Amino acid sequence: MVIVEIIAVAGLILFNGILAMAEIAIISSRKTKLQELSRKGDLKAATALKLAKTPNSFLSTIQIGITLVSILSGAFGGATIAEQLSSYLADIPSLEPYSNVLGIGIVVIIIGYFTLVFGEIVPKRLGMTNPEKISIKVARPIDFLSRLFHPVVRFLGFSTNIVLSLFGIKPSKGTPVTEEEIKVLIEQGAREGILKKVETEIVERVFMLDDRRINSLMTPANRVVWINIDDADKEISDTILNSHFSRFPVCNGTLDKVLGIVHLKSLFSIGCDIKASRLRSILQQPLFVTEGMRALKVMTMFKESGVHTAIVVDEYGVVQGIVTLNDILEVVIGELHPANEPRMEPEAVQREDGSWLIDGDFTIVEFKELFQIERMPEEDKNLYLTIAGFVTLQFGDIPRTSAHFLWDGFRFEVVDTDGRKIDKVLVTPLKLNS
Q1: Which residues contact 349 (CB under 8 A, 6 or more apart)?
Q2: CA distances from 323 to 119, 134, 207, 229, 347 (A)
Q3: What ranges do the domains of the chain cover?
Q4: Residues sharing a CB contact under 8 Å with residue 272, sequence separation 6 or more, in sequence order
Q5: Based on CB atoms within 10 Å of each CB, which residue in 175, 230, 393, 433 is the most buried?
């Protein structure tokens, strides 16, 4: 009789282990992998996916099962096995007064040990080793139990909500995954070698698109090469041939009067004879966007319209610069300039002594990335966009050459100006001097 009861307890512990393994396997499974298997026609994977998407139901079912197992194990162990063990211990004269206590204590320790090891720890470790494979195998039995205990689960859920309402707590529908959580997963994948370095960098840069204003990516107006439709034909031809750009705003007298955009490839359709009268026939209308727009929104506009060039204007309609789809893509995948094409973007060059010679048009966003700076002073007021603007703000006007100041562990020195704006700034981390 005792052997039968021991086998019954062992079976209950084994069943407890199966439930624990199923619980951790379904929770740990990657829904994307289950979705892929489900699309291929795997019905068991579809069942596992359904359980993973409705955790409250199947977790309650498993909890009911584990609770019943614990109750039955206690009943068998306490009422029968412990009683038999106590009678054996009573035959020993020195233990006879304590036989009942010792019998129950020994049975509780043994059952507790086997329940923890074989009913919880080992099964959960197994469930985490290959969660998708295990969840597929246990999906249908767990789904059957969920259906069987559905009325009980509904009743328990209703009771739980009532108790929570007494404490003023509303049932949660689940917390959506945040951007920070995704970034943590990406960093973890990079550390474990699941993601390559370039893949990690690209994904991280994608999140930057909605944080960056389009005026930090544009070619500013003072660097834009544009065509005046009123210029002589030779002057127009020279402007195009002497420039490295592939897109040119065509304007009527000033950059603020944009007639359209001409693409270098469109010029092939009119041959070598470039004339103002013929340019009008190949003009393409650009998009017009405000300087405060986010890069992600502008990229969406490019995609929906099929136009990949935009004129950036301020609140008064004054042209501030030009931005293309390539400018936005470079945020994600890096520079797209051909090797033989001269680089015209503002640069930051590190010198041998560790200091940096930076172009005045170097954007604040790039400056922060370069030196890993979290925040710049008065950045939220949009008082400046470039390092030249930041330096000018510190002095209150356009400083003279060799003027310098200290800020947050850096020394800024004006190296070159053209009288109206700062061309070069020397930035030296103070730790180099120390």
Answers
A1: 356, 357, 358
A2: 62, 51, 19, 21, 18
A3: 2-166, 180-209, 214-333, 348-433
A4: none
A5: 393
For domain 348-433, give the CATH number.
3.30.465.10
H or E element, residue 216? none
Three-state DSSP at 316 gives coil
Q: Give the predicted TM-score (pTM) of the model.
A: 0.55
Residues whose CB falls within 8 Å of the CB of residue 373, separated by 6 or more in sequence, listed in order: 367, 408
67: which residues sit within 8 A by CB, 6+ positions away?
none
CA–CA gap between residue 149 and residue 209 (Å, rounded): 48
296-340 per-position pLDDT tens digit: 999 999 999 999 999 999 888 899 999 999 888 888 887 665 554
Helix H, strand E, coil C: the string for 175-209 is CCCCHHHHHHHHHHHHHCCCCCHHHHHHHHHHCCC
Angle subtended by helix axes 99-116 and 2-28, to nearest 10: 30
